[in-house]
């Protein structure tokens, strides 16, 4: 056997990018199951249809760019994008909505910038925002959770996706929506009258958030990412809510717990904010990055035009990530100060 | 219990040390030939002092140290020098380099040698000389001459002497074997180093994965005051900077040395070599090398004569080439691959690793960097490897330096941790080399620029001086010619005689009074312009080096320039006065003076215009002007010959034509050199 001529190191650790991606996929499972329990099969259909499209478009893009699809598809990053977008989209979304979202994410946000690792913006969130701005009606049509309304079956879910004209589902505002629209009731009264609210956050939503939190904690335990960005994000969001919350007036903006367990908070904290490609890179940088997203989420939720805000907040901070990196360079061994000289 | 500090990052690769620790240290024997590279250390290569055909004894010096940072080489066994030539050496590039080749006679006959009986009575500097004479260079990997590292700056104090027994690289157990089997020698070596360095405390740092070694060392250390410090196993805690942080909590300043924070660090193997050199008078001619990996049947530690071909060792260890995928000198984290088993074992060869494909698989193609940051978590220097990778790919060298690329110790932890299997360290090495090359190129071009400018200035100044002298000569010649002419045209001989006498007297007075004055003034101008020249060159150099003297030098240059201007003014004034107020103040008289001045001005203007030209263009321009001047001078010479002017004038003109021709020849040579350089 001819002897290899390679440079050190010759040994390699057990971690690989496909493994990282597969673990992220696995970690979304509890959240997806809870969403399916409360809202029916819509989310699963989104994920499967989106996944299929994502892999097809990724192959196409790789081929057009002269890369070997066989090698690069292995990194599973397209599937991760599809799953994240599928979770973020309202269940029972029509097929074309998913298709536009996936195409925007894979082609526009990812491959136009050079593929995995080169995209400045989180692809799933780009897909989501493109849809939210272009198709606000479809994007805000959430199904009522189990206990509030009828949960459609699998067949209805497929129908809703692939034959949207023949599907007439019930949709309802989300708890964040309701809270936003409310300008007369005390929070306590709102809670009492509306079955959409659960124990701490939205009915069903709170459990989905807890499930995503569990998935996220497992990823933390597996050391797929560090705690800095998600914890900073959650802390900043809770802190903002705690500062503004006045005990329950109509203008109180919701309690810290409500914010932590409503909408896309936990999903965002552990699956979006932690996207390594588009976030800041140093430890300090990730703290700043996460905290500013938390701040923005609260600001947009309470004072902005949209009931939920994770996608916008993340994209805005994607812009700022290189800037944050510039100012949060760690102190190198043997140097007196960190940051850029 | 001593406080142990932690360093940032680090990884926990599989240790794989057990394989080579099953047997005690074995003797690798005497091979047929020993190949001693003249450069086994950092610094100048050694200079051979033996001849081909000469018989050498074991321990005999065969090459002297080639400089201050250098060590001599010794014959590891007795035999005959059969060649001094380029042979394959263990080097990442697979280089060949000059080696002394000894055909061993197998008798292993020692040169008589004795140690120092009572070294505490010997001065540190004398002991350092012995260490240097023994050819000891750091045996941990870098191979820095031990005596240079141990030498203290006058007045410096050392708080901590650290013996590095960490051996954090997987697979390698050479130091572990030494600890188990020669603990007393390690302590004896440490005592000698302690005597030389005079530290407040002496520590031996060992990772906690070597309990037997630690126990043996502690037993040997007894109450000597040498402390054996155990700390958690983590790669790369054996890096000098990392070990210093673990044991002292202090960081070596970037670009500095451990001595800057009162620490001296020596490798464990080096410590034993020091002991052997001082107590036994035995130079560094052998070392312990680990041979391991699944492609060898008998992994273990071998005492190997330096210069032993690797093929000899591999054979000894039962090497199966068919199962081996790469041959690594050093460990799996920082070692380099060898392609030629004829390369010898050298002073820094702590390990030979012959793994199978299953053991250390061929690296797969790298996937995209997802900036996950696992590398930054692993980096012991607290760098941002993912950013460095990004900048290295983009060849953004300034950014790389801003992100402290040169603080990277190339430990490989980032590459090990990278989930996308990107060969990060390779990118950093290449970028470092590229930046260093750029720096060298920049320095070189800066130097040539300064040298060239200085030369141009000098040439222009010389041309000016010659021009001025020529003008002065011409003036003198014309004056005489005019005198002669006026004399001939005068109708009244008496009047003419009176006039002549008057003129002569006046001219003599003028000459006596002002010739020396002009000379003085001219001399002043020349001196001042020379000074300005020197001052400007100094200023340029200071600017190039970014020295803080730039401002002071600038002031100096300004002052000198003012002086020069003053001197030139004085000269011009004097000449003007001479021209206007002199006894022979005719229009024809004043003209040459003004012409000389004008020539100076013209030359200066031309020089200013030339500043922007390339050297070649400058030379070409100069040549053209010289040729024009030559044509003029030749014409003038012909005219004056035809006019039957005085011999002196003709001679002066002839001399001037000669000078111009010489100059043209010189300029043509210069032009040819430039052309050759540019074509090259």
From TrEMBL, chain A:
Membrane topology qualifier: Multi-pass membrane protein
GO CC term (a single one): plasma membrane
Gene Ontology biological process terms in this record: electron transport chain; transmembrane transport
Localization per record: Cell inner membrane
Spans through the membrane: 71-89, 125-143, 227-245, 257-274, 286-303, 309-327
PTM annotation (FMN phosphoryl threonine): residues: 174
Assigned keywords, A-Z: Cell inner membrane, Cell membrane, Electron transport, Flavoprotein, FMN, Membrane, Phosphoprotein, Translocase, Transmembrane, Transmembrane helix, Transport
Co-factor requirement: FMN
Main location: membrane
EC number in record: 7.-.-.-
A Pfam family assignment: NQR2_RnfD_RnfE
Similarity remark: Belongs to the NqrB/RnfD family.
Oligomer status and interactors: The complex is composed of six subunits: RnfA, RnfB, RnfC, RnfD, RnfE and RnfG.
NCBIfam families xref list: PRK00816.1, rnfD
HAMAP family: RsxD_RnfD
Purpose: Part of a membrane-bound complex that couples electron transfer with translocation of ions across the membrane.
The protein's name in its UniProt record: Ion-translocating oxidoreductase complex subunit D
Organism in which the protein naturally occurs: Parahaliea mediterranea
Gene name per UniProt: rsxD
TrEMBL record, chain B:
Binding, [4Fe-4S] cluster 1: 369, 372, 375, 418
Any one GO biological process: electron transport chain
Bias-annotated ranges (Basic and acidic residues): 463-481
EC number: 7.-.-.-
Ranges for domain 4Fe-4S ferredoxin-type: 359-389, 399-428
Name under which the protein is recorded: Ion-translocating oxidoreductase complex subunit C
UniProt xrefs under InterPro entries: 4Fe4S_Fe-S-bd (IPR017896), 4Fe4S_Fe_S_CS (IPR017900), Ion_transpt_RnfC/RsxC (IPR010208), Nuo51_FMN-bd (IPR011538), Nuo51_FMN-bd_sf (IPR037225), RnfC_N (IPR026902), Soluble_ligand-bd (IPR019554)
Organism: Parahaliea mediterranea
Transmembrane segments annotated in the record for this chain: none
Region (Disordered): 1-20, 463-493
Record's bilayer topology term: Peripheral membrane protein
Subunit structure of this chain's protein: The complex is composed of six subunits: RnfA, RnfB, RnfC, RnfD, RnfE and RnfG.
Similarity section: Belongs to the 4Fe4S bacterial-type ferredoxin family. RnfC subfamily.
PROSITE patterns: 4FE4S_FER_1, 4FE4S_FER_2
Keywords: 4Fe-4S, Cell inner membrane, Cell membrane, Coiled coil, Electron transport, Iron, Iron-sulfur, Membrane, Metal-binding, Repeat, Translocase, Transport
GO cellular component: plasma membrane
